[in-house]
Amino acid sequence: MGIRTSHPIVAASLWMCITIVSFVGMAIGARELIDTMSAFQILAIRSAIGLTILSVYIFFSGKKQHRTKRPLVHFGRNMIHFWGQCAWVASVGLLPLAQVFALEFTVPVWIAILAVLFLGEKLTSPRIVAVLGGFIGVLIILRPGVMSLEPSVFLVLFAALCFASTTVITKTLTKTEGVVTILFFMTFIQLILGTAIALFNWVAPVIADVPWLLVVGITGMSAHLGITNALRIADASSISPIDFLRLPTIAIVGYLLYDEAIDIWVLAGAVVMFLANYYNLRKEYKPTIRVQS
């Protein structure tokens, strides 16, 4: 599946636009649902929708992309990812959307640290800049000592750590597994986990919930497909500035839909994290373009 244009960067940009719209849609859907059902139930239904979409695709593609020789790696990855998703969905209902997205930009910082600890990668000077920039950005956003520190911000930071961990694990999985295989086991395992926990406090969805459940389920798939395809076509350093547009986009959405004030400190902290991570990407990766086959 791919977007065909005359230039790879244009195609990558279009995939990133799909990713941004997907993340924003997922946040809105979760915000609309979290008051009536638990994060576990939202994720269970989201996984059920995603698994249905993938199963139909696998059936018609004729490829056996639901098989793997590394089930334990998939299970470990999705245990971590599941709890990260639960924390993220819960935080969306507790914090301004822009603050959630801004703190989520700490994911590259956690990846840099985890890659050193578990993948044996070197902590180079550019990566040190990214880590320090991430730390300073978080301090600017939270302003400890000036603003009261909401305990719910730790949910976002925990989610970011989980997402970074799954990214590192995914890096090892992609050596033997395709994107569809990884997504299939993600939805399958998280459907089981979410349902098993949600059954203790299951709430029957009403008609008004159905559109938002579909939004969460569909955008959960489209976000992964968007960013994966963008990275297949172009370097991370090329798409990183586009990904940063998630923050002003969600800030405007939060202002228009939920009357959330646009906090200049949140934007400033996110800019610091972005610049530090962008510097790291420019220094660490060569600006080559991988044309999609």
What would you say this structure looks like, in words?
There is one protein chain. This protein is mostly helical and 293 residues long. It has one domain (8-284). It is built from 12 helices and no strands. The protein has helices at 8-33, 39-61, 71-92, 97-104, 107-118, 125-142, 153-173, 179-198, 210-233, 236-243, 246-258, 264-284. Helix 1 (8-33) runs antiparallel to helix 9 (210-233), helix 3 (71-92) runs antiparallel to helix 7 and helix 4 (97-104) packs antiparallel against helix 11. The longest helix is centred in the first third of the chain and has 26 residues, at 8-33. The protein is globular.
Q: Nearest-angstrom radius of gyration? A: 19 Å
Sequence stretches where pLDDT stays below 50 over 5 or more residues: 287-293
What is the percent of helical residues? over 70%
Number of helices: 12
